[in-house]
Structures are given as C-alpha cells and as structure tokens.
Amino acid sequence: MVEAKILNLAITDKGFVVILKPEKSDKVVPISIAYLEAQSIMSSLIGYKIERPLTHDIIYSIFQNCNIRLINVIIDNVHTDTFFAKLVIEHNAKNIFIDSRPSDAIALSLKSKAPIFIEEHVIEKAGILLEENDNLMKVKEGIPFTYQKFERDELQEKNGDNIFVKKEPEEINNTDTQQSNTNNKKKNKEELQKLLDQAVKEERYEDAAKYRDELDNLTE
Predict the structure, then answer these.
(1) By CB atoms within 10 Å of each CB, which of 15, 71, 182, 200 scores lowest?
(2) Which pLDDT belongs to residue 73?
(3) pTM score, two decimals?
(4) Higher pLDDT residue, 137 or 112?
(5) Phi/psi zone of residue 92: left (φ > 0), alpha (ψ -120 to 50 degrees), beta?
C-alpha cells in the first residue's frame, strides 16, 4: 500500500473528480464522485463549516460519541472504472474493515484526519499522468479528459455563503444543458418526484440534488 494525498477536487464534462496523489509516484489517481460527496470533501478541504450537518458529519459525530476511531482508509481495488475502498476502524480494541465507496471513505478521512492508502495495483491500473496549465490539468496519457481545478483560496473568498452553488464552468456548459434546464422547469411535482426517486435509487446524487431543488422551488 502507498499513502496518498488529495491533490485537488476537479470537474470534467463527466462530473466531479477527486484527484489522489500517491507518494513517490509521478501518477495521480482520479476518482469520479457525486455532487454531495464533492460538497463534503471540498468543505473539509477549505475549512468551511456548513450550517446543517451532512451525512459524513453525522457519521463522524457517531464515531466520536461511540468511541470509534477511523484508523485509515484504503482504496483497494478498481474494476471497469469502479473503485472500491475499505474503512479501517478501531472499536473495543479491535480493528474492523468496512466496505465503502471511495468518495465516502475520502470524505470521512478528511473529517477524522485519517490517512488515505492506495494499493499499488490500483495505481498501476488507474493512475494517469497530468500536465498542469494555469487552472487546467490535461492528461498526458490515459483517459482524454481536461480537469478544471478548484482553487481553495478563491473559493473561500468568493463563496462564503455556499461553496457549491449549482453552476457549471463555461467550458463545460453547452446548449443541450441549457435546453435540459429549461425543460426541467416545466415538469410538475409528480414528474420531478419520480425523477428524484429514480436518481436516488441509481445513486445519481448530483441529479437528485437538482430535482430536489426544483421541487423546493415549486413548493415555494
């Protein structure tokens, strides 16, 4: 296993990505994550306290109140672009391994200040080389994405009220997205509720958050 640090949270045309940098390696490991996990990770990275607790805040509070210590998290496998992880916790003097999504494991590691480890075969299989240029990171080899970085200082200065206002970068916006947003506004509550339920069932939490906000606007 190799310890890794969070290099950055980024966004591609496919969605949010957390980029892990293993020690003593030129490669990075990009892992796709959903909107809600990205919000939790970024709030921890920049030290932003959200008014009401998110899911990972609640789990961390449970850990604290039940004398559970998160020792570390391990990204231990990858299969067809799906990553797998383990939480290693200590409870009643025993180490327990709990299956987890990497996004949740990384978010909890930040809350608990626990180290992140990646198995070497995962780095070999999923690691890529990035070339940094201003606020963009382009892939030297591997998947053909351009990553737009989030600058922590800039987020702290610009977005004190809400670090994740639902806006996409100009480079990623297109007319199809704008047309989709226009059509979504016309959906009634029943249609939106069905879309919300389906998105949650399929763990498409970024879409779920969008449908929830539209429902809230209709209610108002």
Answers:
(1) 182
(2) 98
(3) 0.64
(4) 112
(5) left
pLDDT digits (tens, 9 = 90+) for 20-47: 999 989 999 999 999 889 889 988 888 8
Round to whole Å and give the CA distance between 98 and 41.
20
Place of tokens 């029943």: 190
b/e 20-52 (16+ beta carbons within 10 angstroms → b): bbbeebebbbbbbbbbbbbbbbbbbbbebeeee
Long-range contacts of 14-23 (CB under 8 A, 24+ apart): 14/145, 15/206, 16/206, 17/145, 17/147, 18/102, 18/103, 18/106, 19/130, 19/137, 19/147, 20/75, 20/106, 20/116, 20/118, 22/118, 22/123, 22/127
What tens digit of pLDDT does each residue of 143-200 get?
444 555 555 555 555 444 444 444 444 444 554 455 555 544 544 777 877 887 777 6
More confident residue, 133 or 27: 27
Closest CA to 122 of 186, 67, 79, 62: 79
